[in-house]
Design goal:
The complex is a heterodimer of chains A (69) and B (323). In chain A, 45% of the residues lie in helices and 20% in strands. With 69 residues, chain A is α+β, with helices and mostly antiparallel strands. Chain A has one domain. In chain A, strands 2-1-3 form a 3-stranded antiparallel β-sheet, with no helix packed on it. Chain B has a domain of 196 residues: Pyruvate Kinase, Chain: A, domain 1 (3-Layer(aba) Sandwich), CATH 3.40.1380. In chain B, 61% of the residues lie in helices and 13% in strands. Chain B has a 5-stranded mixed β-sheet with strand order 3-2-1-4-5, with helices on both faces. In chain B, strand 2, helix 5 and strand 3 form a beta-alpha-beta unit. The two termini of chain B are 46 Å apart. The chains are: A alpha+beta (69), B alpha/beta (323). The interface between A and B is medium-sized, with 31 and 35 residues.
Chain lengths: 69, 323
């Protein structure tokens, strides 16, 4: 069978979700693009948000997920 | 009615006199009882009305600008939103939507905006989430909130802060893209235990209409039970390639479904937010315009009245001297 079939148990075992796995794959495909399409696609993968976990009605310190330097 | 308002405005202007006490009164509400004109004061100060007019005009300028900004942003987001609907529709066709499924751990994902001044879309979202929370509550059940956006957080903190599991903000710093939402969905899936995720958002209908909407995503185990009992989807009628079992495929599918639904929901909500802001700002600039018209009328009338009074006084004084 194809390589993906063989890969499934491994990324699952590593604690990745399907979303994480497909994101890695998508990033790889985007990196294969040539200019000017490459920079155009790069603008579509900017990640920025802040996430705060709550325990017992109190908020913890927010974690900012971002990739802009 | 307009006349009554005018008279009211007029009286307020007439009462404020150019004495230092009145100037104080204009500034501090504590001294506002000293509104009676001091002895010997004749002319009427229009200073306060002029300041008021200026501030109303400035506010109108701001709301107009906000409306323009929202309108120009809306067009791009609307196209993206309409395109993103194609992402979740196949899932609904394949797996179906089962809002009535009764499970133990419900996680309500309420999508709101970070910024205000956009009409009632945030309170609608919160209201629906609360109703859903009440509806799915019961003994031995655990309902949690995951909130996107500051405004929803602020509203939900008040009475259900013990049920908040996670809050997310600042997602609209860059234009919303799939990668971002996928990372976010990944974080939610990893950190929250759930049997069913219920995503609540405002679905964009048109610039003036938004429908609060809920989409249910079941966990793989629940999904498997449901599909065996024939309540959701007909995955069995598809031929599956590769060596994966049905449960593995269902897990992958539900995870991907969640990210797609989240992407669509975030866009729909952003689109609704802009539309709502547009109409809210439109009506507030119109209100400011009405107020300005009223104030201008009052102002001119008062000015005219004081000029007439002065003229009469001068003329009568002159004729008294002559006679």
């Amino acid at each position: 069978m194809s390589a993906t079939t063989a890969a499934v148990p491994f990324w699952r075992a590593a604690g990745m979700t399907y979303i994480g796995y497909s994101n890695v794959c998508a990033a790889l495909v985007r990196r294969c693009l040539k200019e000017p399409y490459k920079s155009e696609a790069a603008s579509r993968e900017k990640v920025h948000f802040s996430i705060t976990k709550w325990t017992d009605g109190k908020q913890e310190k927010p974690i900012v997920r971002t990739d802009d330097e | 009615m307009a006349m009554a308002a005018l008279r009211r405005e007029g009286r307020r202007v007439l009462l404020s006199t150019p004495s230092p006490a009145a100037a104080m009164a204009a500034r501090s509400p504590a001294a506002s009882h000293q509104e009676i004109a001091p002895l010997g004061a004749r002319s009427i100060s229009t200073q306060i009305v002029r300041t008021r007019m200026k501030s109303v005009r400035n506010i109108q300028k701001i709301t107009k600008a906000m409306k323009m900004v929202a309108a120009s942003k809306l067009r791009a987001v609307q196209i993206r939103t309409e395109n993103s609907r194609g992402l979740w529709q196949p899932f609904t066709a394949l797996l179906g939507d089962a809002p009535s499924v009764d499970v133990k751990k419900n996680v309500i994902v309420a999508i709101t905006s970070d910024k205000g001044l956009c009409g009632g879309i945030n309170s609608t979202s919160v209201k629906v989430s609360k109703a859903l929370h009440k509806l799915t509550a019961g003994p031995e059940k655990e309902n949690k909130y995951v909130i996107l956006g500051e405004k929803g957080k602020v509203q939900l903190i008040r009475d259900s802060k013990n049920d908040i599991e996670m809050t997310i903000s600042e997602i609209q710093k860059n234009p919303i893209n799939y990668t971002q939402i996928a990372v976010l969905a990944d974080d939610i899936l990893k950190n929250v235990e759930y049997d069913a995720l219920r995503v609540v958002f405002n679905k964009f209908q048109s610039v003036i209409s938004f429908k609060p909407t809920m989409t249910t995503i079941l966990s793989p185990e629940v999904m498997e039970n449901q599909s065996e009992s024939g309540k959701v989807g007909d995955l069995d009628s598809y031929e599956i390639e590769g060596g994966e079992t049905k449960s593995e495929i269902l897990q992958n599918l539900t995870e991907f479904q969640f990210s797609c639904v989240m992407y669509n929901a975030a866009l729909e909500n952003a689109c609704s937010e802009l539309g709502a802001r547009m109409s809210a700002m439109d009506s507030s600039s119109r209100n400011a315009g009405d107020m300005l018209d009223r104030l201008t009328l009052t102002y001119n009338r008062t000015r005219q009245a004081s000029i007439t009074t002065e003229l009469t006084e001068i003329i009568s004084g002159a004729s008294a001297l002559e006679g």
